[in-house]
Amino acid sequence: MGATLRPMRFPRESRASARNGRPRSSFGFNLSRELGRIAGGLLLAATALASALACGSRTGLWGSDEATVGVVADSGSGGDATADAPSPAPLPPIDAGKRSAPSRVDCPDAGATLIYVVTASNQLFSFLPTDGSFTFLATLACPTPVGESPFSMAVDRKGVAYVQFTDKRLYRVSTSTGACSVTAYSPESATSQGFGSFGMGYATNDVGPSEFLFVAGSQGGTQAQSPGLGRIAPTSFELTKVGNFLPDIARSELTGTGDGRLFAFYTKGEQSGPPSFIGEIDTQTAHVVAETAFPSVDQGKGWAFAFWGGDFYMFTSPGEGSTVTRFRPLDSSLDVVGRLPTRIVGAGVSTCAPAR
């Protein structure tokens, strides 16, 4: 990419001027012409130099910009290799609309199905979603060690409640009388899989009528994340881990539907919030597949969760007593629909409850 410069020659006097007797030099004329040639050559050389620089910028010469970008992109050179990592795709909002017709061969009248709640002081209540009213049913007298209290609750398809107490054992409770007995669930076996205390809820296998009791492990002590999602078999009460939540969620309570879906009410850390979230959980992988955030909902000192009639009911205790907040996915409305002067720590509803 260069140019050859011609040597400058000063021409002799022309023969024509000698014959005419007028010595006439062509030096001035030829000099101008030669200077023009030199200028052209210099311009060509400058062009060649610019081209060389341009070629250098693509091959990394002279500290080119592209060479610098290459160094930054190389994680081995000390650059931030995570800067270009793709962000997780945002989750879609939850959709509680009925997807499949659930089996109701063993169900009572769905409209008569209630939500049941248990308080930290062992009181069992029913909650009627249509008008937000509570009815006291019984005071539990489970065979627990002195000083233990309810931690979480779920209700199976037949309307029988299962309550985990702070001793980490699981008790069977009649929602009619409050009669209570210990189950075959082994806290020691569950602890070996990382599960101690947990939130819980029933969901059917596909459209039912068979169902599993799902549990969401609570992180605590030295655990950096939740133990994940587990499943308790209906007769042996053996716990099997499904998987870790992805993304990780904390302080989870669960509720399920008659068409095989499972939902969680949770925060994103060890604090009670706000914000709080409702997410749909894949029962096969424990992955969160949909999520809706609630910036104003604080779980507080006690929380519970239930699905009924296409709506979600969040029972929270940010102060004294409990507040019931209904989320209606159909129109995204959020309304306080009930209060109880004592602290609710568990809620459960049959998978026979109405889906809409």
Provide a compact summary of the structure.
This protein has about 350 residues and is of the alpha+beta class.
How can the largest sheet be summarized?
A: 4 strands, antiparallel
Architecture of the largest domain, according to CATH?
Answer: 6 Propeller
Number of domains: 2
Strand content: 25-35%
Outline, from the CA principal axes? globular
Structure class:
alpha+beta
Whole-angstrom Rg: 39 Å
Task: Please supply descriptive tags for the structure shown above.
globular; four-stranded antiparallel beta sheet; 33% strand; alpha+beta; 20 strands; 15% helix; 356 residues; single chain; Neuraminidase
Describe the structure.
The protein is an alpha+beta fold. It has 2 domains: 15-77; 110-349, 6 Propeller (Neuraminidase), CATH 2.120.10. It has helices at 15-19, 27-59, 65-73, 187-191, and strands at 115-119, 123-128, 133-139, 150-155, 161-165, 170-173, 180-182, 198-204, 211-217, 229-232, 239-243, 250-256, 262-267, 276-281, 288-294, 303-308, 311-316, 322-328, 333-340, 344-349. The strands form 5 sheets. It has a 4-stranded antiparallel beta sheet, with no helix packed on it. Strands 4-5-6-7 form a 4-stranded antiparallel beta sheet, with no helix packed on it. The chain is globular. It starts with 14 loop residues before the first helix and ends in a 7-residue tail after the last strand.
